[in-house]
């Protein structure tokens, strides 16, 4: 939603400007990182701001480490947000993917560029063109996530953020 995008942008800018903040963690709510955009919003008129691509670029360009704590699902734009983060920790039961292709859409926040850089072209093409969801264990093998945990993902991401 526009509110989530604005909160992400505001939070990142505030963290970057605050010298007491040493790292940033992005997590979801209620056991889910992000299922991506609500496609019903695609037909609404464009408003000023609200584009995911520039926000993901803002995450990626942060001078402070940004860690994604992935629980549940990171799909579509949610995965693209995680791809912009410097580090990704996922719960062992998490799933990731870019399912918008099954609706005839391509990922629109540069996921088609970031994913191949991270996991290689063959694996990225498979995910991008099929829309399949992969489990955290496969994401770890591919290099999509840095660590998987069975415990509290937010606590693990906080430990990593403090370490880096």
TrEMBL record:
Cite a single GO MF annotation.
(3S)-3-hydroxyacyl-CoA dehydrogenase (NAD+) activity
> What is the organism of origin for this protein?
Toxostoma redivivum
Give me the reactions it catalyses: (3S)-hydroxyhexadecanedioyl-CoA + NAD(+) = 3-oxohexadecanedioyl-CoA + NADH + H(+); a (3E)-enoyl-CoA = a 4-saturated (2E)-enoyl-CoA; (3E)-hexenoyl-CoA = (2E)-hexenoyl-CoA; (2S,3S)-3-hydroxy-2-methylbutanoyl-CoA = (2E)-2-methylbut-2-enoyl-CoA + H2O
Q: What is this protein called?
A: Peroxisomal bifunctional enzyme
Write the gene name. Ehhadh_0
Q: Which InterPro entries match?
A: ClpP/crotonase-like_dom_sf, Enoyl-CoA_hyd/isom_CS, Enoyl-CoA_hydra/iso
Query: PANTHER family, per this entry?
Result: 3-HYDROXYACYL-COA DEHYROGENASE (PTHR23309), PEROXISOMAL BIFUNCTIONAL ENZYME (PTHR23309:SF49)
Q: Name one GO biological process term.
A: fatty acid beta-oxidation
Instruction: Name the protein family.
Output: In the C-terminal section; belongs to the 3-hydroxyacyl-CoA dehydrogenase family.
Q: List UniProt keywords, sorted A-Z.
A: Isomerase, Lyase, Multifunctional enzyme
Taken from the UniProt entry, a GO cellular component term is:
peroxisome
């Amino acid at each position: 939603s526009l509110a989530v995008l604005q909160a992400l942008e505001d939070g990142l800018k505030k963290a970057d400007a605050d010298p007491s903040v040493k790292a940033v963690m992005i997590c979801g709510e209620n056991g889910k990182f992000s299922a991506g955009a609500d496609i019903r919003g695609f037909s609404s008129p464009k408003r000023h701001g609200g584009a995911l691509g520039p926000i993901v670029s803002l995450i990626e360009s942060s001078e402070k480490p940004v860690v994604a704590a992935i629980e549940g699902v990171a799909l579509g734009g949610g995965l693209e947000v995680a791809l912009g983060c410097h580090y990704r920790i996922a719960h062992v039961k998490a799933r990731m993917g870019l399912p918008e292709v099954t609706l005839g859409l391509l990922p629109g926040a540069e996921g088609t560029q970031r994913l191949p850089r991270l996991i290689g072209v063959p694996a990225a093409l498979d995910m991008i063109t099929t829309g399949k969801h992969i489990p955290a264990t496969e994401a770890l093998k591919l290099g999509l996530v840095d660590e998987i945990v069975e415990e509290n993902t937010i606590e693990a991401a906080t430990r990593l953020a403090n370490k880096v």
